Automatic annotation (TrEMBL):
Residue stretches making up the PH domain: 21-127
Name of the protein this chain belongs to: phosphoinositide phospholipase C
Pfam families linked to this entry: PH_12
Domain of life: Eukaryota
Sorted UniProt keywords: Hydrolase, Lipid degradation, Lipid metabolism
Length: 237
């Protein structure tokens, strides 16, 4: 009985790991996300994850921007940051998330719940891995690590394999929320279109920003020029 339970847990963990790797692959292929500025005016920007999985890259106008994931302290679901609170879009709550770094936030809205789950799960896994690496580095300098910071306790708290798309009990949820390693996209209302996005200007991405993809893969607006991009954004507007 125990052996069968252990086998089931192993299979479940393997599936979660595969889902995370697929999400990370999708992030490398990139997507247009709606980015909120400090003044609250959102605009579409092309985003993608660098091939080495350490940097999030996007273009604002013609300027390339970077955010090292090692600088991100947490990823927050929904619209909880001061910018989102100042300019709320409650109908897009389940399509929104923020990356918190250096007392600032990168506030983003995806085109639907499914895309939000991909970006949230992929980024939270990479941020979690970075936290674990930092912990190992710090723990080597400590002669006697405390129980609260032991590898087993830390892994239970922060591993992306620990309840990746759910929430635990109240005390565990509070701890996980500090690292934002749970997904809130459990059972929201489906919002699959952006009827109010038509006024926003959609910039052309720099040539080569989105890597070429084969059929059935994550979309690549650059692969088909303006016609492909127009087709893609009719899904939003």
């Amino acid at each position: 009985m125990r052996q069968r339970m252990s086998s089931d847990v192993s299979r479940t963990g393997g599936q979660v790991e595969r889902d995370i790797e697929q999400a990370i692959t999708a992030l490398k292929k990139g997507a247009y996300l709606l980015k909120y500025g400090r003044r609250g005016k959102p605009k579409f920007c092309p985003f993608r994850l660098a091939n080495d999985e350490s940097i999030l890259i996007w273009f604002s106008g013609k300027e390339e921007k970077h955010l090292r994931l090692s600088h991100v302290t947490r990823i927050v679901s929904g619209q909880r940051t001061p910018i989102f609170q100042r300019y709320p879009r409650p109908e897009k709550e389940y399509q929104s998330f923020s990356l918190i770094y250096n007392d600032r936030s990168l506030d983003l809205i995806c085109k639907d719940k499914d895309e939000a789950e991909v970006w949230f799960s992929g980024l939270k896994a990479l941020i979690s891995r970075g936290h674990q690496r930092n912990w190992r580095t710090e723990s080597r300098s400590d002669e006697i690590p405390s129980e609260a910071n032991s590898p087993r306790t830390y892994t239970q708290r922060s591993s992306p394999l620990h309840s990746p798309f759910g929430s635990g009990n109240s005390s565990q949820k509070e701890t996980i929320d500090q690292l934002s390693l749970h997904s809130p996209f459990g059972s929201p209302p489906k919002t699959l279109s952006f009827p109010d996005m038509a006024p926003y200007k959609v910039p052309l991405p720099p040539k080569g920003f989105f890597p070429p993809v084969s059929n059935g893969s994550f979309h690549s607006p650059s692969s088909g020029g303006s016609d492909t991009m127009h087709t893609h954004f009719t899904e939003w507007v």
